[in-house]
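Students often ask why we bother encoding 3D structure as a string. The short answer is that it lets us treat folding as translation between two languages. Here is a chain of 93 residues written in the first language.
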Amino acid sequence: MKAGIFTTEFWISAAGMVGNVVLVLVILGVIHKEDQQSWTMTLTEFVTALGTVVINGAVIWRYISSRELLKAEYLKASSPNGNGNGHSLPPVE
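And here it is in the second language, the structure alphabet:
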């Protein structure tokens, strides 16, 4: 099971909450009513972009980890004593 931060539902919910956060800031007087729409759009786009970066980063991290594990297993299996010392991968054609 994926951690919550790596799910689409989390990022859709986070983007949806942006409007509520901006509304609270308008009520508190932190943001002027005239700026509400532009702040909502800007922050929604930011959350969407951040979600994309986090999820893509996780995909890349898993790919690199799996490749590293695969190569380590190959080196261990190809060495005479089973520890992978002194052997390199065959040349790529």
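Translate back mentally: The longest helix spans residues 36-78. Keep this in mind for the problem set.
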